[in-house]
Write a structure and sequence with these properties.
Layout: H1 8-33, E1 54-59, H2 63-66, H3 81-87, E2 95-100, E3 114-118, H4 124-136, E4 140-144, H5 146-150, H6 152-155, E5 161-164, H7 170-179, E6 186-188, E7 215-216, E8 219-221, H8 231-235, E9 241-243, H9 246-254, E10 260-263, H10 272-282, E11 288-293, H11 295-300, H12 302-310, E12 313-321, H13 325-330, H14 341-350, E13 354-361, H15 370-380, E14 385-390, H16 398-405, H17 431-445, H18 448-456, H19 461-476, H20 478-486, H21 494-504, H22 511-538
Parallel strand pairs: 1-2, 1-3, 3-4, 4-5, 5-6, 7-10, 10-11, 11-12, 12-13, 13-14
Antiparallel strand pairs: 8-9
Helix pairs in contact: 9-10, 10-12, 15-17, 18-19, 19-21
The structure holds cobalamin and iron/sulfur cluster.
Length: about 550
């Protein structure tokens, strides 16, 4: 178990241990993958790899994330775990760096031997630019990730090697082939397991650039099949959902300093036995954590949920998606159909867990009233934070095929497939209505009036204060986060988040004492928050929502 407030010495010590463990795991793994270590030194460019390589791993950013006029909190939340996972397979002698263009400037004048680029749909254009640049400079370029898997033919001309699906089987295979001088142009993942996963190279992550450096994934994929989701396309040809061994997952958690964790798993509760064992193992570790789960898991797995809370669950990202049940049928989101959303929220709140509700606008049954209905419902339910998306047909999904067959996909400018722009013809709304309604929903949800109304739905002063601090903190103090990000001090915001989450685990304060205190405290808080809001407005720091074109703050994309 790790300490509560890591000092520098602890961090350095932790990194040393990581290095050591990493070296041991990699050498074990090499034996598994490559029994024959002896390979001849092959000159780079003639089909093989030099003895040791300069390897540059890049997460390219979409243009807006690097703009000096853009408030980039969302892009400074999580480090590039996928690349750090792949880095763990490299040889000890290799010189490996990871550059996340969302949070640091990418140098283009260096001469790496191997460039590894992770491609998301919105960063595809930039990824291809960088790939072409390095190929012109004589580097070997490998492209992989979600977008490459969806559209391999588009990616292939920009790379020496492309990778489809998760990389845990294909990447070590490629490194082995490279050493033997027979690397292939295309690798397709089939063998889905996390059994021999070496500890990810967190030592390559610049922790101080991220608000949530302790993000972690202990599974891949999801047991459900929703039409709009990336996951069917990405995991086709093999298992669609699989987990780490519990002990390995716990060991990975134990390596992380501090208290706060964010599980980025699509559905941490997807395998109830795994989840229960994981939470049992985490009990007593003193962690505070956030994750994603479904309405179904909240309603049907009360025991697992209680274990989660005992082990530190404080906020859950829940995909409600729509308040129109006919839409759920269309999107094959069967696990939500007929579920009592309010009951799920009540259950989470009773356990002291905050809810980050996720909603999608633009489904075929959505008319002009959908925005107000959705926001009002979320505010009345006391949902602490909301994440809205415009329905986006990602290539190679069932949704895309349906839209394409109906001739409704408007263009293929992938930069705009960011769930904030309308890229298809909606059924009961115009594109303008949909885009305007989306921004209005954010504005309306994060108005102080709404935050206050949401807080008032809670029983007791303490939960109300937490609601105000969390919902207000995320949205209304965005400029302050931005300042911390730009001064590369974002990690200093983490203790604030931990403090708020700590309080969320507590049961509501006793009803009578809260009732006695509440009116005065509420009035004072309300006045104070209105003043802060006015001051920020006057200073031009916050607009109504996103005046500066910035993305809404989301804990998940
Ligand atoms: C964390 C996260 C973010 C973070 C940070 C991303 C990061 N630092 O990596 C932030 C908040 C910045 C973000 C932003 C966005 N995100 Co996001 N995000 C995620 C999330 C929740 C987890 C990613 C993760 O860490 N996964 C775990 C690691 C281990 O897996 P991985 O990254 O996929 O890497 C593996 C493989 O992809 C593969 N691989 C990847 N690259 C390469 C390269 C090679 C050479 C090889 C061999 C293999 C390989 O191997 C890795 C190990 O298996 C995913 C959902 C998900 N479950 O993946 C969505 C997700 C990736 N995001 C998505 C979207 C749409 C966005 C946004 C456009 C959202 C928006 N509304 O603005 C933005 C724009 C991103 C951009 N810059 O272009 C979509 C992507 C859709 C698509 N087809 O590309 C996803 C799938 C969410 C969803 N369900 O729709 N996101
Ligand atoms: S439940 Fe979520 S992660 Fe799973 S398939 Fe549906 S949208 Fe994708």
């Amino acid at each position: 178990m790790v300490g509560e407030a890591p000092g520098l010495a602890f961090l350095v010590g932790q990194l040393e241990i990581d290095r050591f463990r990493h070296a041991r795991y990699v050498s074990q793994l090499r034996h598994r993958v490559t029994p024959h270590h002896e390979f001849s030194l092959i000159v780079h460019g003639q089909g093989g790899a030099p003895d040791s390589m300069r390897v540059k791993m890049i997460l390219p950013a979409l243009t807006e994330a690097t703009s000096p006029f853009f408030r980039p909190i969302k892009y400074s939340l999580f480090p590039p775990l996928g690349l750090a996972t792949l880095a763990a397979y490299m040889d000890d002698g290799d010189e490996v760096t990871i550059c996340d263009e969302h949070v640091e400037k990418l140098r283009l004048d260096d001469e790496p031997d191997l460039v590894v680029i992770q491609v998301y749909i919105t960063s595809a254009r930039r990824a291809y630019e960088i790939a072409d640049h390095y190929r012109r400079r004589g580097a070997r370029v490998a492209l992989g990730g979600l977008h490459v898997t969806s559209l391999p033919e588009e990616a292939a001309p920009h790379a020496d090697h492309i990778f489809m699906g998760p990389g845990e089987d294909t990447w070590p295979q490629f490194l082995d082939d490279l050493k033997r001088g027979i690397p292939m142009p295309r690798y397709v993942s089939r063998d889905r397991t996390l059994a021999a996963l070496p500890p990810i190279r967190r030592d390559l992550i610049k922790r101080n650039l991220y608000l949530v450096p302790n993000s972690i994934v202990v599974s891949r994929g999801c047991p459900h099949v929703c039409d709009f989701c990336y996951k069917v396309a990405f995991f086709q040809g093999g298992k669609q959902f699989y987990t780490m061994e519990v002990d390995r997952a716990l060991a990975e958690i134990d390596r992380l300093p501090g208290r706060h964790l964010y599980f980025l798993d699509d559905h941490l509760f997807g395998n109830p036995n795994f989840a229960a064992a994981l939470f049992d193992g985490m009990a007593g570790m003193g962690r505070l954590w956030q994750a994603a789960g479904t309405v179904k898991s909240v309603l049907e797995q009360p025991v697992v949920l209680e274990k989660a809370v005992r082990s530190g669950l404080r906020s859950l990202f829940v995909g409600f998606e729509t308040v129109n049940s006919a839409n759920l049928q269309d999107q094959r989101k069967y696990q939500n159909i007929g579920r009592d959303y309010s009951e799920a929220i009540r259950r989470l709140h009773d356990l002291g867990v905050m809810v980050n509700g996720s909603f999608v606008f633009g489904m075929d049954h959505d008319g002009p009233d959908v925005f107000d209905r959705t926001v009002d419902w979320a505010v009345d339910q006391g949902i602490e934070t909301a994440t809205y998306h415009i329905l986006t047909p990602y290539p190679d999904t069932a949704l895309y095929r349906r839209m394409d067959a109906e001739n409704r996909v408007l263009h293929h400018d992938w930069d705009l497939f960011d769930t904030r722009h309308v890229v298809f013809k909606p059924q009961r709304l115009s594109s303008q209505e949909l885009e305007a309604g989306y921004w209005r929903a954010y504005r309306d949800f994060y108005r102080w009036g709404s935050i206050w109304r949401g807080a008032s739905s809670k029983a007791g002063l303490r939960p109300r204060l937490r609601h105000l601090a969390y919902a207000g903190g995320w949205k209304k103090f965005e400029p302050l986060w931005d300042l911390l990000i730009r001064s590369k001090q974002v990690l200093h915001a983490l203790p604030v988040l931990e403090t708020i989450l700590t309080g969320f685990g507590s049961r509501p304060a006793k009803a009578e004492s809260a009732a006695r205190l509440a009116p005065n405290a509420e009035r004072a808080l309300s006045e104070a928050s209105v003043r802060v809001d006015e001051e920020l407005h006057m200073a031009g720091l916050v607009g109504d929502g996103n005046r500066s074109g910035g993305a809404p703050i989301e804990l998940r994309s």
